[in-house]
Amino acid sequence: MSQSLLRYTNILSIVGDIIRVEVPNLDGAQSQARNGDLALIEQDGQPYSLAQIIKLNRHEVSLQVFAGTKGLSTEAAVCFLGEPMQATYSPNILGRIFNGAGETIDGGPALDQDPKVVIDGPSVNPAQRVLASRMVRTNVPMIDVFNTLVESQKIPIFSVSGEPYNQFLARIAIQAEADVVVFGGMGLIFDDYHFFKTAFEEAGVSSRTIMYSNQASDPTVERLMIPDLALATAEHFAVEEGKKVLVLLTDMTSYADAMKEIGVAMDKIPANRGYMGDLYSQLAKRYEKAADYKGAGSVTILAVTTMPGNDVTHPVPDNTGYITEGQFYLHDGVIDPFGSLSRLKQMVIGKETREDHSQIMNTMIRFYSEGMNAKQKQAMAFELSDYDLKTIQFADLFREHFMKLDVAMSLEDALDLSWETLAKCFNPEETLMKQSLVEKYWPHKAQVNAEAATAQSARESTEA
């Protein structure tokens, strides 16, 4: 890392984690002050923290101090390093944990001599992207069957505080078929950080996982670095090594709140609900890193976005919805089949997956919807038909077999279970499905009866 011999000591102000320093020769070549580059903050002749240049204004430079400004005096000195923020990139980073400044925090060997790559680069040339056509298997039936995740897709998990979205994200990281999983946590409480770390270790997937973690007690400015560090690493694994990379981020609302906090400290004019006017472009800049590269690998992004007050019109989920290709709604401990949507699922359903996938998906959701309507009629004391009772039975089985977050099975097993669930509740002609598919996949009556008897026996033994 290059370092200028020049030190600038005229600190004009310290507001939050941002300092302003006077640089008289800002237009000269010797200043080495460029937007986005790093600087070293020194106090009492000793290194204090790295900082990033975020604004140049005549003879003033504004910097975000990574370690925060608590204890920093106006007698500190600033030295510009002449290069932007970089992330360590080598095979040695697999299984490692980094903070928002790109430094290892797991107690493992130092990586100072490993190659570095610049973060926050431009999105890939659209001419180098190929049309999404491959499925990312997660072994979560509510995703694989009903809202299939596709390579190069960018999709959020909309949730509210208190829902087990971090546990759900960890399950996807463990179960998903990906060569490399890059996890980025922003504003995590220690319990969540420890949970992710322990879950990856116990599941034996640490060797393919890279963690970038910013805890709630860490400096806010480091929170803004997490997506860029994670995505820069993922991009290089995909392009240079042809890897199928899955990027998991939590929580993008925490990231946006950090942007708002920094913007207020810089006296920017806020827009909707205090967020800065460039919220959309800042989110889009990160999400657009998702791509399937021609002749190389792919980057797929799955990011948690919490909705304060369960308000989908909140600026963060609202802007996210215009950028991404669908969403998963998580509430009441389940993935809601009605609010969730994958706009790219048609690219793989029936092409890379089994021929009955499309029919099963549509039929199951149709019957579940009718079952929920029948339950509303039942709650209002309306008379129910035999068909209504069938749909209610189906809705209960659907929720038990597919919607619970702890359910894990392959796509093929989920499709087979879908046929079995239909056969327990309906006659083949009631499903209105293609006859050729019914003849090929409809379970034999004796098989259905045997499975029902086994389930009944299990229930009775449990009650006993």
TrEMBL record:
Residue intervals of the ATPase F1/V1/A1 complex alpha/beta subunit nucleotide-binding domain: 141-331
Residues in ATP synthase A/B type C-terminal domain copies: 351-441
Keywords for this protein: Ion transport, Transport
CDD domains hit by this protein: V_A-ATPase_B
InterPro entries attached to this UniProt entry: ATP-synt_VA_C, ATPase_F1/V1/A1_a/bsu_nucl-bd, P-loop_NTPase, V-ATPase_su_B/beta
Matching Pfam families: ATP-synt_ab, ATP-synt_VA_C
Recorded superkingdom: Bacteria
Protein family membership: Belongs to the ATPase alpha/beta chains family.
Role summary: Produces ATP from ADP in the presence of a proton gradient across the membrane. The V-type beta chain is a regulatory subunit.
Protein known as: V-type ATP synthase subunit B
